[in-house]
Amino acid sequence: MSHTTEFMIRILVALACGAAIGFERQWRARTAGLRTNALVSLGAALFVVMGAFSFHGPDADPTRVAAQVVSGIGFLGAGVIMKQGATISGLNTAATLWASAAVGSLAGGGMIGVALVGTATVMAANTMLRPLARLLDRHHSVAGREQPEVDYQFLVTCKPADEVSVRALVFDAIHQPQFTVRSIAAIDEPDGTVTISAQVHSEERTDSAIETALAAVVRADHVTSVRWSATEQAVTD
After folding, report:
1. Is the pLDDT at 226 greater than 60, yes or no?
2. Report field, pTM of the whole predicted structure over 0.70
3. Which InterPro entries does the entry link to (predicted)?
């Protein structure tokens, strides 16, 4: 087999492996999808091929290029990691890019079988471990786990004549140390009632504290309905 044919096989395998890893990410609408992972794997393979066949002599060390790929991909991975308050997103995407570079380096080094196994393992980790991760997410008592920040919205309905007193009641209920009040507004409904809309922010999800805070509002005679919802600010990996 000629060197040219061998190069083409390695490069195409690297491209296919990166595309396979990226397909799963694209399917789940993640930041770095099919093209990004394919290009990362392809680029890593090209650098490794260059290091293996372009430098000759007693002082030549092809592994230096591969080592720079490992460190260099960290800058690309850092670009997809975002921090919003106490929530950090994009870590899994960055790790997947790093794994794509590793698979591409294996293919570029001629270790085709290991590259294929590595590709399958990365895809399995991103799919099969997802249910386990979600199960662990439900247990907020896991030590060291950061809680996602949450925005709560309250909708309290009353008669127009009771708007002022209900608004004061809602404000007193949500004016707690663990909450940050962002807005309180009154909305006139077509059926002649008034809806008091309030939004508060919490650094962690505390549904029980919300229910306790709204207990006085729920028991008020001039309140006809109370609804609340929570929106976590955490972004999936």
Report:
1. yes
2. no
3. MgtC-like_C, MgtC/SapB/SrpB/YhiD_fam, MgtC_SapB_SrpB_YhiD_N
